[in-house]
Amino acid sequence: VVEGAKTVDVRFDDGNVYSANVIGTDPYNDIAVLQITDDLSEENLEPLTVGDSSELEVGQQVIAIGNPYGLSDTMTTGIVSQLGRLLPNREAGYSIPNVIQTDAAINPGNSGGPLLDMQGYVIGINTAIQSTTGEFSGIGFAVPSNTVKRIVPFLIETGHYSHPWLGVAGTSLTPDIA
For 14, which DSSP code? Predict the structure, then answer.
């Protein structure tokens, strides 16, 4: 959602808009940290509580909140369809591991919004859908809250998260190589 941006606008549900700096990004998990630079003294802020995504179970009811197609403050419900999915990103050449699959309607504009359990705890960040049309088809994905809790402190401190990787590549075995 914020790829390539240094500053963004943050819109609250009361309609107020504030400027924010992008202080850290992790494109490999589709996570960013923003810091609002404007005076928030007029806002009555009540942050959401981050839950423990390791306690999720398949079949558990969830709520997705976002702004699909610019329709602000939209809430949809569904269930956790599966846990621990590997979300391929063919355009970027990497996959996001361990995502939550849900059938709560997630569409373009929901990215970055919370996935909540029925107690209102954030258990994920909505990130993508699987669709042949680009519209909701019953398969949405969210980055688990435990992944967010692990990565965000690094984004705040250094602006990025260093992912371990193994520098191994494969090739076809030809008779000459054999």
Answer: T
pTM over 0.85: no
* Nearest-angstrom CA–CA distance, 162 and 178: 36
Query: Distance between terminal CA atoms of the chain?
Result: 47
Amino acid at 96: I
DSSP-derived secondary structure for 39-97: --TT----PPPB--GGG--TT-EEEEEE-GGG-TTEEEEEEEEEEEEEEEETTTTEEEE
Average pLDDT, integer, range 62-80 = 90
CB atoms within 10 A of CB 28: 18
Decide if 53 contacts 151 (C-beta within 8 A).
no
Structure confidence by residue, pLDDT tens digits, 110-128 = 888 999 999 999 999 998 7
- Partnered with residue 169 across adjacent β-strands are none
pLDDT at 46 over 80: yes
